[in-house]
Amino acid sequence: MKENVLKNNGLKSTEGRKLILDILESACEPMTADEIFVLARQKRELNFSTVYRTLSTLAEKSIIMKNIGGDGKSYYQLSSEGHCHYLVCSECHRRIAIDGCPFEEMRENIANETGFHITGHNFEFVGECPECFKKNN
Amino acid sequence: MKENVLKNNGLKSTEGRKLILDILESACEPMTADEIFVLARQKRELNFSTVYRTLSTLAEKSIIMKNIGGDGKSYYQLSSEGHCHYLVCSECHRRIAIDGCPFEEMRENIANETGFHITGHNFEFVGECPECFKKNN
DNA sequence: TTGCAAATGCAAATCACTTGCAATAAAACA
DNA sequence: TGTTTTATTGCAAGTGATTTGCATTTGCAA
C-alpha cells in the first residue's frame, strides 16, 4: 500500500505523493515529469515544482527509478516493476520497449572489478523506426 | 585528414571545424560542448553557438558520436575511435571507462526483430565510487 | 573574381529543471 | 483533542545547457 511505502522510507504520506505513485503504477512506460504533471493535474491541484521534488525524493529513496533519455529528459518508473529499456526513433521519437535487461550479470562483474557500488544504469538504442527509415531513404 | 572527412560529407572545411576535430582527436574521453569550447578558445576566437552547431552537424553526419550522460549533458567523441562506456559516480561525478562495448551483437538481434535501423546507443552505469561509498556508509 | 550557399557571431529565447522563502499540512507530543 | 514541530508545498524567480533568428562573413564552384 502506498502509505506504507512512503512511511517505511521516512516520508510523509501526502496526497500529491500518493497520486504520483498511483500514476506511475498504472503507467506501462517510463514517464517524464511533464507527463506525470499533466495527468496529476486532472485529479487535483499540484505544483510543477512539487512534482519534480516528489520525483527526486522518491528516486533518492529508490522507490522509483530515474533514467535520462537520449532526448535529455528524465524518465521515471516504479522500481518494483521489472524495468525495461527502449528503442527510440530519432525522427518521430516513438519508443518501443525491449524486454528484459541484460545488465544484471555485467553489473556484478564490473562491480567486482572496480569496487563501484552500482545502483542503476541508463541504456537505450537510438535509430530510425521502420516507418521513418522508409520515408528518408 | 580532417579536410577530407569534412568534404566527403559535403561540409565546408572551416578553421573552427578542423579545430574541433583536432580537439576530439586528442581527447581520450568523451567531452562536453563546454569543455571543447574552452580548449578551442585557447587556439582561436570561436563562438559558443558555433561549437554547438558544429557538434550537431558532425554528429548528424556520424563523424562524431553524441551521448547523453546521466547528468543530462551531452558528451561527444570521434566515431572512428573505438567507443566506450562509463561508470559514473552519482556523488563525485568521477567517470571511469569500461572497456569494450557489449551491444554490437545485441543490436543485430534487435534490429532483426523490430525492423529498427539502429544508429547508436546510450549506456552508462550509475553508482558510487569506492571512495564516496566509504564516506557515506 | 565574383556570386552564392553555407557557416558564423551575437543576443535573445527556450527548455527542463531547481531554489529561496513564506504558507500549509502531516505527524509527534502534551 | 489541541498544539507544537517539522516536512512538504506553492509561487515566482533563477540556472544551466542548448537552440534560434538574423545580419554578416567565409569557403569554394563557376
TrEMBL record, chains A, B:
Entry-linked Gene3D superfamilies: 3.30.1490.190, Winged helix-like DNA-binding domain superfamily/Winged helix DNA-binding domain
Cofactor comment text: Binds 1 Mn(2+) or Fe(2+) ion per subunit.
The UniProt record lists the keyword DNA-binding: yes
Sequence positions that bind Fe cation: 83, 104, 121
Protein's name according to its UniProt entry: Fur family transcriptional regulator, ferric uptake regulator
Species the sequence originates in: Anaerobium acetethylicum
SUPFAM superfamilies: Winged helix' DNA-binding domain (SSF46785)
Coiled coil spans: none
Record keywords, A-Z: DNA-binding, Iron, Metal-binding, Repressor, Transcription, Transcription regulation, Zinc
BP-aspect Gene Ontology terms: negative regulation of DNA-templated transcription; regulation of secondary metabolite biosynthetic process
Taxonomic lineage: Bacteria, Bacillati, Bacillota, Clostridia, Lachnospirales
Keyword NADP belongs to the record: no
Residues given in the record as Zn(2+) binding sites: 89, 92, 129, 132
InterPro entries listed in its UniProt record: FUR, Fur_C, WH-like_DNA-bd_sf, WH_DNA-bd_sf
